From TrEMBL:
Keyword check for Ribonucleoprotein: no
Name of the featured protein: Bifunctional protein FolD 4, chloroplastic-like
Species of the source: Nicotiana tabacum
Record pathway: One-carbon metabolism; tetrahydrofolate interconversion
Gene: LOC107810393
Limits of the Tetrahydrofolate dehydrogenase/cyclohydrolase NAD(P)-binding domain: 217-364
One Pfam family hit: THF_DHG_CYH_C
Length: 368
């Protein structure tokens, strides 16, 4: 998902069209016509062509083409999938359920969050999780450990929360400092409390037909929830997932398959990824590379779920950067039938789904 501004590095962009002749030819394509566009970015400030970008050091090595097909129009026609609004709806539904649960069985769901280190973005996500818990009536327990803490310390807290009956969900904020073994730590969370759905048993069950995971990872679950709530049919459709991370790409592909889509995964070693994405009715992109998926990669009418949250340098922004997705929104919104924005698309769904998993866990514990 998002790269940390703390660990970002500057590099020259090489993935959207070069700003010279090709861009000049394309400029008329980027006129802003429709209400879907929330910013007032004009052609010369097209967000798909930042001259310098800031991105994470562990950038993937996809190549991209800059060919624009005839199917692209000058109009933005895609419906913008409002993740912020859907996440609020979900949180309201959860709050109502928790209130009923409290009244009828006097149980308040509990979520324990473990944060290790001082990444700014992780600290923000943890703070937002805590706030979201408070707003819906989930009790949150938080442990913040120093960057140089040992794996044993983390395991000790996990063990305590595993045994605590007030805690129904445990999550360890990722990424962990590099000296820690992520696998050891995630494996230590009791699967009944694994509200992130990252335990190998939960992932294994997700992958198997006829088996049910206790929890599904929050971001992929949020992607599917958006498709459901916007009545996007998945069954029988061709879906392409861009990226194969354990947190998003891989579980998203498994979930789409469980929904009876025919699924392909495109990754950093895929040759001509655009030839595969162009066949997709649904694209979920989770690769962490700004504007990598171009309009020319998209079949007209496809639905685009953009999981990428990439900071790019922007001197006009008080933060010095702004967030863009993996998908070139300006181009894609002229070809797709629906698309998630960044920010305000999948991101807010991640925390909403975490609350949903925590409630699910508490309900399961009490057979409620
Ligand atoms: N243990 C986990 N670690 C991480 C997860 C996770 O699901 N479990 N996911 C990400 C980070 N993440 C939650 O932890 C997260 C990322 C993004 C957002 C979000 O709402 N993004 C906003 C933009 C926020 C901004 O302005 O900076 C958006 O897209 O609109 C929420 C949660 C990695 N680690």
């Amino acid at each position: 998902m998002a790269s940390s501004p703390v660990t970002m590095m500057k590099m020259k962009v090489n993935d959207c069209s070069p700003p010279s002749t090709t861009a000049a030819r394309l400029l008329p394509l980027f006129r802003r016509h429709q209400i879907h566009f929330r910013s007032s970015v004009g052609p010369l400030q097209n967000p798909c062509f930042p001259r310098t970008i800031i991105t994470h050091a562990s950038r993937s090595s996809f190549s991209s083409s800059s060919v624009i097909t005839a199917s692209m129009t000058t109009e933005a026609s895609a419906k913008v999938i409002d993740g912020k609004k859907i996440a609020k709806d979900v949180r309201d539904e959860i709050a109502a359920e928790i209130s009923l649960m409290k009244d009828s069985i006097s149980v308040v769901p509990g979520l324990a969050v473990i944060l290790v280190g001082d990444r700014k973005d992780s600290a923000t996500y943890v703070r937002n999780k805590k706030k979201a818990c408070e707003a819906v009536g989930i009790k949150s327990y938080e442990v913040c450990l120093r960057e140089d803490s040992t794996e044993e310390e983390v395991l000790k807290y996990i063990s305590g929360f595993n045994d605590d009956p007030m805690v129904h969900g445990i999550l360890v904020q990722l990424p962990l400092p590099s000296h820690m073994n992520e696998q050891n730590i995630l494996n230590a969370v009791r699967i009944e409390k694994d509200v992130d759905g990252f335990h190998p048993l939960n992932i294994g069950r997700l992958a198997m037909r006829g088996r049910e995971p206790l929890f599904v990872p929050c971001t992929p679950k949020g992607c599917i929830e958006l498709l459901h709530r916007y009545n996007v049919e998945i069954k029988g459709k061709r879906a392409v997932v861009v990226g194969r991370s354990n947190i998003v790409g891989m579980p998203a592909a498994l979930l789409l398959q469980r929904e009876d889509a025919t699924v392909s995964i495109v990754h950093s070693r895929t040759k001509k990824p655009e030839e595969i994405t162009r066949q997709a009715d649904i694209i979920i992109s989770a690769v962490g590379q700004p504007n990598m998926v171009r309009g020319s990669w998209i079949k007209p009418g496809a639905v685009i779920i953009d999981v990428g949250i990439n900071p790019v340098e922007d001197a006009t922004n008080p933060r010095g950067y702004r967030l863009v997705g993996d998908v070139c929104f300006e181009e894609a919104s002229k070809v797709a039938s629906a698309i998630t924005p960044v920010p305000g698309g999948v991101g807010p769904m991640t925390i909403a789904m975490l609350l949903s998993n925590t409630l699910l866990s508490a309900k399961r514990t009490y057979n409620y």
